[in-house]
Specification:
CATH superfamily of the domain at 3-141 and 228-281: HUPs
Strand order of the largest sheet: 1-2-3
Structural class: mainly alpha
Oligomer: single chain
Distance between the termini: 60 Å
Radius of gyration: 30 Å
Bound molecules: zinc ion
CATH class of the domain at 3-141 and 228-281: Alpha Beta
CATH architecture of the domain at 3-141 and 228-281: 3-Layer(aba) Sandwich
Length: 530
């Protein structure tokens, strides 16, 4: 069974009662909007979105909530903001930091908008919400009271799980300093049941400096927030979360997930949601990380692939396996090939189609409801070649390879692929994928007698006008020559590429030769066979 179906089945067993009552299951994920959204976050979004889609498919009511966290303190400066200008905002709640780009309401909104735009083409059933309005509306007031009343218990959990000792006057709450407006620099030191006392400390954290102010304030309705591990647990209760996975870095023993789970169960009396721990997304693009100095953002990777290929990339591997992505290597061509391979299983072009492959193909689609058209698609590697050949027209070659004219859907798909192939060739492809027809056969091409004889025989064979000038018959002639002369395959194939491309390999040989006119091929063989 495909991994996501297994997870959906476990979920439907665990929440059988809730499902029977037709209460929607709540799936949740979040992102703190402190910088451009990294591609790793996209994996979490797609995993949660896919589970929601599968539950929909099974007729199980559910809702996928995605939090855009605009309330955390600014605790780092991205390289693309004016460092001297933004340094003063360190420690402030993100929603109070001004935007560094025009058009957004505040700093976190810039990233929130980019994330929404990036994720939109994937068609996942996401319900976005911002965190701060939820505090303002008073939704967190109950959990704030519970957390403050149980400060000692929470301190004990931190100590037991991660070994992090908190002083006895530490309370799980960060007040927004009434004087300097920072939330990352304050420590709550007392709680009387209605108000908290706090101090804005100069050196509480390394990344921001407090103002020294000491005050007393009501902690409710947006004046303060919970620190993140306690807050994570609080969110599960506030939003009634049933399913929430998280990255491997949080899931480790003694990590934040374990602390949140214990706070949730022991303080808020709320069961830890069903976890889906997932591994890292390893990005290896040298060019990209060097030029921008930030690794890859979700948007940058999303721009490299059609949405269903991006979705496939994110779901093809089980969550507990890392995804390696290198735009300069084989990742992108392999991903397209994989998509085509899976489609062969889905459309039963195999005698024994493999159910998991067919399912992976189905789940990579943007909508799981609509029927998938069975269309002819050109291989990525073939497109790489055709697009670089000024003498070839993509649609003509496609029709030749397919054996009939393309349908409207096939033309649209071909154009979409062509866009991504061109982009990849221009920005990432290494020399291995670059093809250029040389003007003259190489002068220094050294062939032995056996090779010369084979090429001469081939020249004669293709001079025969009865031979249809198409890939398959040409291919068949080459093989016949190979058998007649007993030459090693490599020894006949390599010079055929060399006399046109100046390199020893290229696309499928029969088809490759068919893209030139017969006379050109005969001439070149003539020159090289001497
Ligand atoms: Zn202050």
């Amino acid at each position: 069974m495909f991994w996501a179906d297994e997870i959906a089945e476990e979920i439907s067993k665990r929440f059988a009662d809730k499902i029977a009552k037709k209460d929607p299951l709540i799936i949740r994920d979040e992102k703190t909007l402190s910088g451009r959204v990294h591609v790793g976050s996209l994996r979490g979004i797609v995993i949660h979105g896919l589970i929601s889609q599968i539950l929909d498919e099974k007729g199980i009511a559910n809702k996928f909530l995605f939090e855009l966290n605009d309330f955390d303190p600014m605790d780092g400066l991205p390289v693309y903001v004016d460092q001297s200008e933004y340094k003063k905002h360190m420690g402030k709640p993100l929603f109070t930091v001004p935007p560094h780009e025009k058009g957004a309401e505040n700093f976190p909104m810039v990233f929130g908008n980019e994330l929404k735009e990036t994720v939109k083409p994937l068609g996942l059933p996401i319900n976005y919400y911002f965190l701060r309005p939820e505090y303002l509306s008073g939704k967190f007031n109950g959990v704030i009271t519970e957390a403050l009343n149980n400060a000692e218990k929470i301190r004990k959990i931190y100590l037991e799980v991660s070994g992090g000792a908190k002083p006895s006057d530490w309370y799980p709450l960060n007040v927004i300093c009434e004087k300097c407006g920072k939330v990352g620099t304050t420590q709550t030191t007392g709680w009387d049941g209605t108000h908290v006392t706090y101090s804005c400390k100069l050196h509480l954290v390394e990344w921001a400096e407090g103002c020294g102010y000491e005050g007393k304030v009501s902690p409710f309705s947006g004046k303060a927030k919970l620190p993140w591990k306690a807050e994570w647990a609080a969110k599960w209760k506030v939003f009634g979360v049933d399913v929430e996975g998280c990255g491997k870095d949080h899931s480790a023993s003694g990590g934040s997930r374990e602390i949140a789970a214990r706070i949730s169960e022991e303080v808020f009396k709320y069961p830890e949601p069903f976890n889906i721990p997932y591994e890292f997304f390893n990005f290896k693009g040298k060019k990209m990380s060097a030029s921008k100095g930030l690794g890859a953002s979700a948007k940058e990777v999303a721009d490299m692939l059609p949405p269903k290929l991006l979705k496939l990339l994110m779901i093809r591997k089980k969550p507990n396996a890392p995804i390696d992505f290198d735009p300069e290597g084989n990742t992108i061509p392999n991903l397209f090939d994989e998509y085509d391979r899976l489609s062969d299983h889905y459309f039963k072009r195999h005698k024994e189609p493999f159910a998991d492959f067919a399912r992976a193909f189905k789940l990579s689609q943007i909508s799981l409801q609509s029927e998938i058209p069975d269309i002819w698609q050109m291989r990525f590697s073939t497109m790489i070649f055709i697009i670089q050949m000024p003498h070839l027209k993509l649609e003509n070659e496609a029709a030749k390879l397919k054996g009939s004219a393309l349908t409207k859907a096939e033309k649209l798909d071909l154009a979409e692929r062509a866009h991504y192939v061109k982009q990849w060739l221009e920005s990432y492809a290494t020399d291995e994928y670059k093809y250029k027809i040389i003007d003259e056969p190489l002068a220094d091409l050294e062939l032995d007698e056996e090779q010369k004889e084979a090429l001469n025989k081939l020249k004669e064979a293709i001079s025969d006008n009865k031979l249809k000038w198409e890939g398959a018959p040409i291919h068949e002639r080459i093989h016949r020559v190979k058998e007649e002369t007993g030459i090693e395959p490599k020894k006949i194939f390599e010079p055929l590429y060399q006399i046109f491309l100046g390199r020893k390999n290229g696309p499928q040989i029969g088809w490759f030769l068919s893209t030139f006119d017969r006379k050109t091929v005969i001439d070149r063989l003539e020159k090289s066979g001497k």
